[in-house]
Design goal:
The chain is mostly helical. Helix content is 73%, strand content 0%. It is built from 18 helices and no strands. Helix 5 (79-99) runs antiparallel to helix 9 and helix 12 (267-297) runs parallel beside helix 17 (393-419). The chain is globular. It starts with 11 loop residues before the first helix and ends in a 36-residue tail after the last helix. Mean pLDDT is 75; it is low at 1-8, 422-428 and 462-487.
Amino acid sequence: MSGLLIRPRIRPRVAVVLVYTAAMCMNGLDSTIVNPALYTIAGDFGRPLSAANTVETAFLVALAVGLPVAGWLGDRFGTKRVFLGALTAFTIASAVCGLAPDLDTLVVARAVQGLAGGLLTPVGMTLLFRAFPPHERMKLAKVLIVPTALMPALGPPLGGLLTEHLSWHWLFFVNVPIGTAAVVLGVFGLREHVEGPEGKFDTVGFWLATPALGLLTYALGFGPSQGWTRPAVAVSAALGSVLLVAAVLHQVRAKTPLLKLRLLADRVYGSASALAGVTAAGLMGVLFVFPLLYQASLGASALDAGLSVFPEAVGLMLASQVVDRLLPRLGPRLLTVPALLVAAAVFAALAIPGVAENAWSVRGLMFLIGLVLGTAVLTVQISGFESIGPADMGQAMGLFQIVRTLGGALGIAACAAVIGGGHVTEAAADPGPYRTAVWVTAGLVALGAVMALRLPREAPQPPPFDDEDAPPPGEGLAADEAPAVKG
């Protein structure tokens, strides 16, 4: 079905890059910017530090909830409409976070942020792929990896800077002008595309998976501070687990499932997805607990804690420039296993008494974490999708993001459980639990090295390109023509 001819004021290909980059910067930044401020937030609200952890857990798990329905919503209502709607919700929720009068309001607003963020990533990638032909996407990915890779690492130092010199409220206020400008640009510059979903929406799968994730989020968030045997926590954990099992069984049997879990049967993709979850648990866990160790045990400020992990961004950016050259020569297994082993050793070094007290030792170790763990993560992302055909790419990407996001949430929850429910107002914090939590993250990364042995020795060849997968006329190099509407 042909669409209406509309000549926007800005070229759609320029607009989609600018709007997507702005959205991903906000989304990536918010995944870590709160970490160094949790110590201050908990103190301001008079709550245990592990209770304040739900600020991050709510964001990460809600983000996972939005991922499975993102593709269906984009096809049904249009990628432009869904993307800008999610970006608007993210921006408004950011303002509410900054104005939150109590921890409960902040957690709810963060959940809204996460839900909107879960829609932004896959729908935004769809916008990009429809605006650029295949032969231009690799070059585009190298450019866009800068904001998407740099922002999560920039979050801790920026969070510490704003918390120390302004207040933690500004961690969220910074999103408002950026999000507003991106929405306005998107309204006038983006093109609409309605694909039309195949089959009916998997209502049963949705209503099984959504409460399951919500209940498990509650249990993971409040278990460390309230106790795992507390009735509300124990019931939530048990019921959430039952619903999650039911959701998985339904997805496997459904004709048009919300998530194609059968894709995990592919050895390369399945191994890559599991590995992504474990490494995310280790990385997000250490980014969560190490700033707290710096503040609670070593007496550092929020800014110092944030700056302590920033060199990880430099190592990650360096890794992004060399993986595409090393992967064809070494293969996924030989490149990933040693990198994860080194990363596990570096994580463990952070927990050794005396190492964390030396600022330059911490900076050097954080740089190595970004370099070696970034090499492993990027290798898994590239090789894991090589065996996935174009028809399943959207489902595979959504499932991969869910596993990785849930892994990060579990890593944070595990560290919070090890730290315990002590109040941040205690005069002298015992560094022991914090160091133990860092050891836990090292163990997770070491487990990832074992799992990486299932990766292939040689880089798998991508599926043959089918002309039917090429962008239709008007969506390639001439993407600034009329918006396409298919139904």
